[in-house]
Amino acid sequence: MRYYVLDRGDQLSVDLAQQFHRLASERGFELDAESPEIVVSIGGDGTMLHAFHTFIDRLSDMAFVGVHTGHLGFYADWRADELHDLVDHMSGKNGQEPKKPRIVQYPLIELDIYKKSGNSSHIALNEFTLKGVDGTVVAQVDINDVTFEMFRGDGICISTPSGSTAYNKALGGAMVHPQIEALQLAEIASINNRVYRTLGSSLLLPKHHHCDIFSRKEQRLVLTLDHLNIPVDDLISVRCQVSNQKISFARYRPFPFWNRVRNAFLS
Ligand code: NAP
Predict the structure, then answer these.
(1) Do residue 195 and residue 124 come from a single domain?
(2) Is 189 a known ligand-binding residue?
(3) Which of 16, 218, 232, 265 is deepest in the core (most CB within 10 A)?
(4) Of 122, 227, 260, which is best to mutate to test ligand 1, by the most ligand atoms within 8 angstroms of its C-beta?
C-alpha cells in the first residue's frame, strides 16, 4: 500500500507520525509523497484541511484517514492510542487479508474568482468567505443568474456540508449531513436598511444551482479558502457551486456524523 502522513507539527503528532512510519515499514507499506493511496492526517481537523490542499490535484486517486491528537475531530476519528489498531486494519492482522475500507465521499465547493487582474479556480473542503479589509463588504448576490439580494456587512460565508460544523456554525448556520450535496450561504453581520436588504438567515443551494457574488464598490477584500487567506483588491465576482469532485475518506469502522455533532457540541 502506498501511503503518506501529514502531521500538525506539535510533539505528540510528530511522535505519532514517526510511530506510524515504523509500523508501516514493518507491514511493507510504501511511503509515497507523489501518489499515495491513503493519506493519514495526524493532528486535528485543521491538519486535514492542510492534507486536502496538499493533494488537491489528486483527489480522485486517494482516500484520507484522520488521527486526532487533541479533541475528537470531524475529519479525524482515530485516537492517538489506537494507531496500532489503525495499521492492523490497513494491513490485515496476523496474516489475514486487509479489510477493505468503506469509502465515504463528501461534497466540496468549487469557486471561480474573476478579478480585473485575472481569474482563478479553487475548491474548498470547509468553506470560503469574502470579508472586507477596510470596512464593510458591499456585494450583490445572484442565484442562478437572478439577482437575489444586495449585501452589506462584514462578509459572506459559503460552506460545504462538512464545513457546516466549522465557521458556518459560529454564524448560526444549519448543520448539514455530508450526504446532502448542497452549499450553504451564511451572512456575517449583515446591515439591513432600505438600501441593503438580505434574507437574514442562511440558505442552502442544491447541486447544479450556482451563486454569483459581485463586488459593488471599490474595496479591498480577503477571500479565505479553508485555512488559506487570499487578498483580493480588484474583485469583479465569485461564482460558486457544489463541485463535481469529492473528497474520499477511508472508513475502517463507522463514524456517524450525528454522533460527531453530539459529541462535539452537546455532550
Ligand atoms: P484555526 O483558527 O486554528 O482553527 C479553527 C478551529 O476550527 C479548530 O478548532 C479546528 O479543529 C476547527 N475546525 C476545522 N474544520 C472543522 C470542521 N469541519 N468542523 C468543526 N470544526 C472544525 O484554523 P485552522 O485549524 O486552519 O482551520 C481553518 C478553519 O477555521 C476554517 O475552515 C473555518 O471553518 C474555521 N474558522 C472558524 C471561525 C469561527 O468559528 N468563528 C473563524 C475563522 C475560521 P482542530 O482543532 O481539530 O484543528
Answers:
(1) yes
(2) yes
(3) 16
(4) 227
Q: Please give the model's pTM, rounded to 2 decimal places.
A: 0.96
pLDDT for residue 100: 85
CATH (domain of 240): 2.60.200.30
**Domain shared by 112 and 74, yes or no:** no
Q: What is the CATH number of the domain that holds 47?
A: 3.40.50.10330
Indicate the number of domains in the chain. 2
Going by alpha carbons, the residue nearest to atom 1 of ligand 1 is 46
Q: Are residues 139 and 240 in the same domain?
A: yes
Does residue 45 carry a catalytic annotation? yes
Q: How would DSSP label each residue in the chain? A: -EEEEEE-SSHHHHHHHHHHHHHHHHTT-EE-SSS-SEEEEEE-HHHHHHHHHHTGGGGGG-EEEEEESSSPPSS--EEGGGHHHHHHHHH-GGGPPPPPPEEEEEEEEEEEEEETTEEEEEEESSEEEEEESSS-EEEEEEETTEEEEEEEEEEEEEE-TGGGGTHHHHTTPPP--TTS-EEEEEEEEE--SSS-B--SS-EEEETT-EEEEEE-SS--EEEEETTEEEEESSEEEEEEEEEEEEEEEEESS---HHHHHHHHHT-
* pLDDT tens readout for residues 122-141: 999 999 999 999 999 999 99
57 is in an annotated binding site: no
